[in-house]
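Z., the sequence and structure:
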Amino acid sequence: MADAVEIRGLTKYYGKSRGIIDVSFNIEEGEIFGFIGPNGAGKSTTIRVMLALLYPDSGSAKIFGLDCMKQSREIAKRVGYLPSEVFYYEGMKVRELLNYSASFYKKDCSKRIKDLSDRMNLDLNKKIDELSFGNKKKVGIVQGLLHSPDLIILDEPTSGLDPLMQQTFFELIREENKRGAAVLMSSHILGEVQRLCDRVAIIKEGRIIKVEKISTLKENSVRRFKFEVESSIPEDYFAMEGVDGLKVAGNVHSFIYRGDVNRIIKKLSAVELVNLWAEEPDLEEIFLHYYSEGV
């Protein structure tokens, strides 16, 4: 399958301050790709370089085979972008703003604007300066989707949306993806990424530390163990390679384990167990494991 996005060795400094360093990943056509890391890790910088809002110090970025720096106008016609913070001319009505945005694509988007606005419960006759932050976010969503883009870039998309509207938003993104659009979703809310994405890139201090299928991250010998022992054991009994996030509450111990499962089972078999649970960890626990290890 062809790549919708190809990032190779992308590096950007802000003076002497770190932006992103040697960032590389690809997004296949029709894929929903997650980009996760805390605020300041480099997610927005990467996206802004992709959209030619910033110029890199080195490396390359291509969208649908087009150079992001040299062919940004052609790329813009095929990309929908929802920034983490949206700012608009306050005096305009929502309808005026969206019609103005649609004019750049040289096609009639009026029905699409109405349909999306109805789905998002957005009043087209309101003035921008009358809108709450959440409603301004809805405007941004409609603006990013009104031209049926081939690539949708979402930077912290659900901030400001209530839970019901978040559900509607997720449904819209799934529908756009089913239509054939590729999606890049940057977020620090790991549940969102786990819910929507096929693969994920984890970024730490400007560097990619892992690119993997979410299913593989969850299945790659990473398990959450919780068990109760008959009598107390030394708290450092399970202080061994591969054990992370060890918690002890009386006779109940829990931790995340990554490695050869036989090693941990052998260790467990040496103590008197009252009960034992072994489960797949959620994405947040996996993320914290990789982030603390930096592997």
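The chain has two domains: 3-218, 221-293. The mean pLDDT is 89.

Let me know what you think.
H.
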